[in-house]
């Protein structure tokens, strides 16, 4: 479960905003690794008649999948958690080589009240890994800015072929808590 | 050294692509991509020079985007071993138009011929079948290769998987273009998609 840092986020509708933006940009393939922060968006995708949610066994599969989707004329978006970014590094090399539109939405762990030290190393280097790999990084830290950040990210990824990652901060999602 | 009674990789790939019609073919990183080029360059050939382990997933993305088009992944045992999870992902999606042919020489030919896991332990056909790809078979004759080549065109009965035991002879490299943007945009153009 998640404890929400901001009272306004107790019934978050930002996943609906993300879904609406993806729909408007005609996103068709949505590879994902199951993740609590993305659970509402994944539900919306799986219930959609125009998008196909594709569960992966590891995040790097999603990078290759999106290259194939674009070869076949479809746009996609990769949903993952910060820990999964490290699994993608070599496959990210396909993006500048093939020059296909790449958008990924990353729920952050390892920051803003994280209780699990094992999440901190990858959470701390997520942005750096992307930037070293040639992927631009945008961040959304509160629900109000999600629509504008998503609009900018989708626009530059799909219209300008600028590989883009949106980091959905742990402050937005709420730090994960485990109760005994 | 080559074992006896194993298939010739170039003959296998030439047969798979001989009457390809509208097939889009994805070659895995390594000799399989060279084999595809040796069989004849084609606007619908997707040559991989990197991203090892990604060939089957590129095939899945393409197959889901173009469900009426036969999509054929031709890759090696080493490349397939690196992306074993993708067989589970494909088994779940069940794209009826996707076929995967593994050229299995039980070795990493590109890097000096070190033996691969398929030489003694890993059964790729068993893995594919256990991942939900029911039409998974081991192929050891050219007649079976020809039958598989025909089946690739049936876009309503896949996904299908075949592991083909080939000899490990080192052949002259026939190198395709390594300009990735050109390769991908050539396929898109042939499918009727305009540049952005």
Automatic annotation (TrEMBL), chain A:
Alphabetical UniProt keywords: Decarboxylase, Lyase, Pyruvate
Q: Say which species the protein is native to.
A: Bradyrhizobium amphicarpaeae
Write down what this protein is called. Phosphonopyruvate decarboxylase
- Top-level division of the source organism's lineage: Bacteria
SUPFAM superfamilies from the xrefs?
A: Thiamin diphosphate-binding fold (THDP-binding)
InterPro entries documented for this protein = THDP-binding, TPP_dependent_decarboxylase
- Keyword check for Lyase, yes or no: yes
Q: Which CDD domains does the protein's record reference?
A: TPP_PYR_POX_like
Q: Which GO terms describe its molecular function?
A: carboxy-lyase activity
TrEMBL record, chain B:
The protein's matches in CDD domains, at most eight in alphabetical order, are given as: TPP_ComE
Q: Name one GO molecular function term.
A: thiamine pyrophosphate binding
Pfam families named in the record: TPP_enzyme_C
Its GO biological process annotations read: small molecule metabolic process
Output the Gene3D superfamilies linked to this UniProt entry: 3.40.50.970
Q: Which residues form the Thiamine pyrophosphate enzyme TPP-binding domain?
A: 44-147
Q: Which domain of life is it from?
A: Bacteria
The membrane spanning regions, by residue number, are 46-65
**Which InterPro entries does the UniProt entry name for this protein?**
Sulfopyruvate_deCO2ase_bsu, THDP-binding, TPP_dependent_decarboxylase, TPP_enzyme_TPP-bd
Name of the protein this chain belongs to:
Aldehyde dehydrogenase
Question: Which species does the entry assign this protein to?
Answer: Bradyrhizobium amphicarpaeae
């Amino acid at each position: 479960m998640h404890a929400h840092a901001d009272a306004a986020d107790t019934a978050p509708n930002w996943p609906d905003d993300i879904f609406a933006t993806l729909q408007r940009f005609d996103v068709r393939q949505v590879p994902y690794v199951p993740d609590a922060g993305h659970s509402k968006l994944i539900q919306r995708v799986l219930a959609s008649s125009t998008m196909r949610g594709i569960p992966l066994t590891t995040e790097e599969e999603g990078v290759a999948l999106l290259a194939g989707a674009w070869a076949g004329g479809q746009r996609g978006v990769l949903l993952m958690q910060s820990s999964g970014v490290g699994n993608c590094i070599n496959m990210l090399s396909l993006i500048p080589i093939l020059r296909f539109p790449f958008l990924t939405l990353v729920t952050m762990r390892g920051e803003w009240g994280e209780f699990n030290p094992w999440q901190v190393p990858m959470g701390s280097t997520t942005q750096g890994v992307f930037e070293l790999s040639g992927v631009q990084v945008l961040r959304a830290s509160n629900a109000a800015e999600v629509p504008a950040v998503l609009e900018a990210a989708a626009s530059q990824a799909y219209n300008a072929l600028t590989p883009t990652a949106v980091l959905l901060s742990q402050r937005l999602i709420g730090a994960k808590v485990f109760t005994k | 050294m080559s074992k006896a009674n194993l298939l010739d990789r170039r003959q296998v790939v030439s047969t798979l692509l001989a009457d390809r019609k509208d097939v889009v073919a994805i070659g895995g990183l390594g000799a399989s991509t060279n084999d595809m080029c040796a069989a004849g360059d084609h606007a619908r050939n997707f040559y991989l020079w990197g991203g090892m382990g990604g060939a089957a997933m590129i095939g899945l993305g393409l197959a889901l985007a173009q469900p009426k088009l036969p999509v054929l992944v031709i890759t090696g045992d080493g490349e397939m071993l690196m992306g074993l999870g993708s067989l589970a992902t494909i088994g779940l999606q069940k794209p009826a138009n996707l076929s995967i042919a593994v050229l299995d020489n039980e070795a990493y030919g590109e890097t000096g011929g070190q033996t691969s896991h398929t030489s003694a332990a890993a059964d790729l056909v068993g893995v594919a079948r256990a991942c939900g790809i029911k039409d998974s078979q081991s192929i050891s004759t050219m007649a079976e290769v020809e039958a598989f080549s025909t089946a690739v065109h049936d876009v309503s009965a896949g996904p299908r998987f075949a592991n083909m035991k080939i000899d490990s002879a080192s052949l002259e490299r026939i190198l395709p273009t390594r300009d990735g943007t050109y390769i991908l945009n050539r396929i898109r153009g042939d499918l009727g998609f305009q540049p952005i």
